[in-house]
Amino acid sequence: MACKIEFIPKARDDFDALDKSVKKEAAKKIDGLAVNPYLGQPLGNKFGINLTGFYKLYIARKKYRIVYRLLGENVIEVVEIVGIGKRDKGEIYRLVAKRLRKL
Predict the structure, then answer these.
(1) Average model confidence (pLDDT) for the chain?
(2) Pairing state of beta strands 49-50 and 45-46?
(3) How many domains does the chain have?
(4) CA angle 16, 10, 96 (to 5 degrees)
(5) Residue 85's domain spans which residues?
(6) How far is Cα 72 from Cα 82, in angstroms, rounded to an integer?
(7) Is 91 exposed, middle or buried (0-12, 13-18, 19+ CB in 10 A)?
(8) What's the mean pLDDT in 53-57?
């Protein structure tokens, strides 16, 4: 059973801002999450930010990360994309933490 993919609004903006080739690769990876939501690697404490329960998925030769979480009671129903951004010095993790405080 395929999971539903949802973006928080700012994550949709992240996706739309990607270069064409990176966007194409990101779209393929995100489509893959619908079939297997565990494609990414679990996150924990990154740069002093607790991201336990979130996952990261690499794109563009590991220059970018897709950060997401799995939603559902007993069965994973939704893969929620929280952010897409550069790896540089934990930039994406700080961005995700900021967005989570606002949710």
Answers:
(1) 93
(2) antiparallel
(3) 1
(4) 115
(5) 4-102
(6) 16
(7) middle
(8) 96
